[in-house]
Design a protein that fits this description.
218 residues; mainly alpha; 89% helix
Length: 218
Amino acid sequence: MENNSSGGGGCSAIFYGVFVFVVIPIVSLVYSLWETPTFIKVSYVIWIVASLAAISLLKGLAAKFGVAGTVTLIYAMEFCVWYSENVLSEKQDDGGFTDVIFVFFCICLTLVTIGALGLFIEDKIDDRKSELKYEQIKRLEKKIEQCNNEIEAMEASIHDRRKALKVVRIISLCGGDTSAIEANPAFAEIRTLSDTIEKKRMDVERFTSELDVKRQVK
């Protein structure tokens, strides 16, 4: 008997859950977009977009549902005023008031479905941000590795000739005439490679700084 009761309770919970969080939002969508005047249609779209944006983009549940809840209440009151004045205008008994309260709560309950969809969109946005961050980090790491490899190759090519460059600089500082030496193509190549190496090292420092920033960003 206990198993049957629990099974029946579970089925009832599923039924009510589907009715409240699936059927009501669908009925609200169909009715709001097909059976209402233009200003209600526009308000409906603004409500849905603003609520989804708040829940998917804002940080913190209080901010998310605070903004979405406020927008929902505004739309619910606007819709209920229109519904009361136009759809229920012929009803004079308490049934009309009950209908308005029911419609109001149906709109408010739709926020649960909007919230679930908004949180799903937020997860997708966060996943995409993580993918972009990972791609940017890998791109920077590749640039750093490439620069270091180029520096290593250039340093290896002028390792022995760098000593000659230092000697020429010392001679120049002492007042010696090094114009003939500096005019030599080999000397110009050494200087060019040395300048390129320094630029590459600056690039490595810049890429490393960018990489550190990217890794710290959540």
